[in-house]
Amino acid sequence: MRKYILLISLSIIFCLVTSGQTESTELEQNFKNPPASVKPRTWMHAIDGNMTKEGLTKDLEAMQRVGIGGVLLFNIDQKIPDGKIKYASPEHHEMLKHAAAECERLGLSFGVHNCDGWSSSGGPWISPEQSMKMVVWNELQVKGGDIDVQLPQPTKRNDLYKDIAVLAYPAFASELDDLKNQPVISSSNPQLKTEILTDNQLDGREVLSKKEKDLPWLMYAYPKAKTIRSVLIVCNQRDPIATLQVSDNGIDFTDVRDLYTVRTGKREWTINDSFEPVTAKYFKITFNQTMSFQEAKLSATQSIHNVMGRISMGRTEDVKMTPIGQPSADMIINPEQVLDLSEYLQADGTLKTTLPEGDWTILRFGYTSTGAYNNPASDSGRGLECDKFNRPALKKHYDAFVKKVVENTKALAPNAMQYSEIDSYEMGGQNWTDDYEQLFKEKYGYDIIDFLPLYAGRFVESPEVSNAVLWDVRQFNCDLMTENYFGYFAELCREDGIQSYIEPYGFGPVNDLDVGAKADINMGEFWMGREMTMVQSAVSASHIYGKKVTSAESFTSNPQINWKGHPALAKTSGDLAWVYGINEFMFHRFTHQANPNVAPGMTMGRWGFHFDRVQPWWDNAGTAWFSYMMRGQYLLRQGVPVSDFLVFVGDGSPNSVYLRKDFEPTIPAGTNFDCSNADVLINRVSLKNKTMVLPEGTTYKALVLKNSKVLSLKSLQRIYEIAQAGVPVIGEMPQQAAGYLHTAEQKALFAQTLASLTALPNVYAGFAWQQMMEQESISSDFSIKGREDIPFIHRADANLDIYFFFNPDSSKQRFECSFNVNGKIPELWNPMNGEVVKTAQFIHEDGKTKVWINLEGEESVFVIFRSSSKGVSGVTNIDKIAKASYSLTVNNKLQEEKETESIALAFENDWTVTFPSLRLEEKSFKFSELIDWSKHDVEGIKYYSGTAIYENEFKLSNKQLINNQRFMLYLGKISIAAKVVINGTDLGVLWMPPFELDITEVLKKGKNTISLEVTNQWTNRLIGDEQYPNETNFDRNAEVMPYWFLNNEPAPLKQRSTFTITNFYGRDKTLLPAGLIGPITIKTTKKIIIK
């Protein structure tokens, strides 16, 4: 489809070229020449204080030159030697002022991340009192009577600890058993200080190393058989796998289970599991990796399952919450027997009071800092994370950096300074703040202090009551974070006249869609080579809250991509992001090149797509790729999104969104959906003609209930209203009211409303999609015969429908498509070159339009319906399709186009190939045949990276240049891109297979000249340089960068020609194919008017 009107063999489209034949619309004009507002933007990372004004200017000029629209500047620590610039210093602010002023000069937008590092909001100006807080506790078992004891101190981090309450209750027999029947702990490391593992303190660290194939382990040997019901291990390893084993002799062990794990901090994981009683004398826990422990203990008491997830210290989404557990009655606290002893606690931690006779457990609760720091931050910018539940704490942070940047740059760059961002939230949980208990009581009507034992994993009153209270706790914590962190950040930005970018998800108490409501621009993220699962929250939030732009941290990648990356490699990842609803690419990542005299220079460690001005393809394939993006992003911001279903994610917290695969059976192919929270259902959805309608005009045909078994009364009532209006409702039916406190009247109303809802004929329990769609006359929006795997996106305006999809295969395919549009001519809009055609190969049937479309491997297309098809008939005769291409002329005459021949070009001479950056005196060579550079005998060419210029001549006769004959140039194999110049006319850059181009208009009789500027990647040159010693004196572990780098001097290179911070290649790595490999051919077609 490089030229829609040209179709080869069976791959034929009937089309009417509209460009130049009808009056161009504004939509077409802006598609061909998109406005600056739709340019992609990029993150730019300054690494470890290595910043210069010269480098910033060169970086920003390079962005402006190729079509990048703006930059969001980060400062990142990557453990390389420091540069001269300290974060938030006067010198740093001077750099930011310079960058903003240069953006103003160049017409770029500018913004900064809100803190040092990429996560999340902290700095040295945040005191422990303003940091994130968590509930901590310690316990003591005592006998009744007069008490005068020193209560053990709960964990104290960052020198912050304040008491909340001291509670006592009759001790469980299992707690007394833990006290009396204590184990001897040993490990695979005899030097391990095991006493740290059971001290109820989360501040020590003990390391247990994995040695080759031997797994590290902890063993608990009891004096007699012991029954265990729960395990708690706090560690600092990512995704540990811990396996519980038992033995009666300490030698032969049997596996019991892998233990449940949840992430509780940036670098903290908690194994918190409870299970059916297991009795043995020896318990062993093996680990899959080296472990660093803060706590590791077993207990006879059944704990609340996944207590850390239930109290918001770990993120377990409500839909994935495991059952809380069903303990025996003697392991449930009777609230009527709980004594509040807080008034008897002395300042030194001594408790003096009198208790009734019997054994008592005393729980001392307090709060401390979570110890979370912004990351990965430099020494000068690192500090505690601000309290996410507290507005004054966030304002302290915002004013310390972002506000200063705004104040410093607004006068210099009134148009450029536009935004700040909260990037990945990776700081883990928080569950306390100043005045938390009062705030909680105001909202829920009961005292959380009565239920503090839940935070220690104890059941209170019953499993059902415990679960209900913890449901309230998680909802409250998510609401606090939404309003006082994300929401307040957006408010502060708007007060300063800038916008907020927010990634509305993360490892903490976050309800994604609620957060997305607060952002000015929602941002997802997608990685090359990974399943795309982190854009949907941003997309749905934007759609349901009417936000036109949805951005994404784009083309993030693992180290395997490194310098091998190039536009063609990344294109399908971007196309898939478009299909999922992203319409602004924010590149991850552009690294600031502080020293403009080295290449490829600085990297962001080993991470990210190397989207840098030093890339050889930056000014050719890069420019073409960015133009492709602009055309696509322009169309994807028109109208409103079209989705058939609105999926309600439920009221439970924390919550996210659902993917198609999360439904069983899955949501039918050919339909799309958005996810919604309760706020949108209640406050933004109106009901019209049995559909749900948003204020912007987006409509949904059915409401889908997911994770809705536990709902608030308010949500249930709204769902009933929606169903009463005739909207089909399908999915998981509600079963019980959410939360703890309910009056008898509320309980009765919930039951009555639920009964009324499920009695309606348009309510379908379970996911009976086919039945619902048939009965409600809902049909697919888009389908491809035999290819249900191909996703799509659809946007619409009053008289306009825009569809987009792409061919995921590497080979050319012919697709028989069906669109849920009738009475309009389908048009094919090509974002590669801006071409617009009206296809004649279509038919209207059953209220839809069937269209046959050919796409090259990994090619994409926009299919647009805007003009009436009244009086126009499509051509669908398959026998004719097999022999020729038929289109309509301006006068509606049928025109036949046939391929006449395919010939290899006869070039007059050997190719002259010039390698401008070759470090040889002679830079031009004669190629008698096209060859892969990496196989060339000349070492400089073998390892060459950059652009080489191929020049030659060919002749055409008058006979060949007959009327109505079109010439298509095919370059064969190229690694990776080529700029084509024929007879002095620049025809653009070919950067995607099949590397074809219509050259008809520039050909002439006789001699024709051809020049091809062919570009490859950095990889081969970097491998070539590994053949020689490194003479730069760069030491990655040094404190500061070498003097020549800091002074913007060239690297002291001898045999090498490159300098880079991160080495991805060894000397024996395989070279990549490079250059123009061919073969080069021309295919011709001839048009004949046949009637």
UniProtKB/TrEMBL annotation:
<dbReference type="InterPro" id="IPR008979">
    <property type="entry name" value="Galactose-bd-like_sf"/>
</dbReference>
<protein>
    <submittedName>
        <fullName>Glycoside hydrolase</fullName>
    </submittedName>
</protein>
<dbReference type="Pfam" id="PF17132">
    <property type="entry name" value="Glyco_hydro_106"/>
</dbReference>
<dbReference type="GO" id="GO:0004553">
    <property type="term" value="F:hydrolase activity, hydrolyzing O-glycosyl compounds"/>
</dbReference>
<feature type="signal peptide">
    <location>
        <begin position="1"/>
        <end position="24"/>
    </location>
</feature>
<keyword id="KW-0732">Signal</keyword>
<keyword id="KW-0378">Hydrolase</keyword>
